[in-house]
Automatic annotation (TrEMBL):
It is an enzyme of class 2 (transferase). InterPro entries: AceGlu_kinase-like_sf (IPR036393), Asp/Glu/Uridylate_kinase (IPR001048), Fosfomycin_R_FomA-type (IPR024192). NCBIfam families: IPPK_Arch. SUPFAM superfamilies: Carbamate kinase-like. It catalyses: isopentenyl phosphate + ATP = isopentenyl diphosphate + ADP. It comes from Candidatus Daviesbacteria bacterium GW2011_GWA1_36_8. GO terms for biological process: terpenoid biosynthetic process. ATP binds at K8, F9, G10, G11, S12, G54, D178, Y183, D184, S185, D186, P187, K188, K226. Its EC number is 2.7.4.26. This is Isopentenyl phosphate kinase.
Amino acid sequence: MKKLIVIKFGGSVITDKKKETPTPNMKNINSLAKQLSQVSLGNRYKFIIVHGAGSYAHPLAKKYQLSKGMSTEEQKFGFALMNRQMLELNLLIVKSLQDYNLSAVGLAPHSFVTQSEGKLKKLDHKIVKYLLKGNQIPVLYGDGVLDDKWGCSILSGDTIVSHLAKKLKAKKVIFLSDVDGIYDSDPKKNPEAKLIKEINSENLEKVLEGITSNNPHDVTGEMKGKILDIKINLQGVPVQVLSGLKMGNLDKAVVQGLGGTRLQFG
Ligand code: IPE
């Protein structure tokens, strides 16, 4: 039986997240596609790819304030723009994977996923299941989707990852970002920041305390939030958070379970 692995390509890896207009990072996209084609050779795994948005959607979501609905004509136009830009990013990633001979199939969440007050309501995972059965690689992404209470809301790639990993019983989840894993403080601001190799139920409290005491100015929300999200939404699934910027990392994570921070709860 092939092992199902869900991989998130973070928006900071596949795009230049600092830019206000869509700016892909083709070097990283192609490097990830190449690595995925290498680990696919042995035919031992099935993959679901979920990618982030980076500069293809975050600036628009902010400009048109799309996280809690679209009531004005301007917001509706912004939503349409965001959907189109995300399709373009998805196309770049799918094409790169196909260039490495992988049967990648893009699935646009705004066309089949709905939310209710910003929470996932309906995602037909059977579409994903059928593709996996046919040895194809579904490629989904964080997107602006319709929301039955607000009109629209933002569906993050992380939510898709957790939902599919649980529904389809993934053996592992890998989050690729632009840092080496989860640190005890922000490594971009603090050169003394230490990488935490392992987080589980036993050391969780200590880790969270350490993160707080190392960050007196409250930059901790993001890291804490990520850990708690994983604890709540990915119970029982081994998770690895590591850098997607280094060649060979994907292989190490998939095959050996090495690199970055490993998390497992329950
Ligand atoms: C964001 O998805 C989706 C939109 C803003 C439309 P993610 O949260 O998964 O994206 P990144 O990884 O932060 O860019």
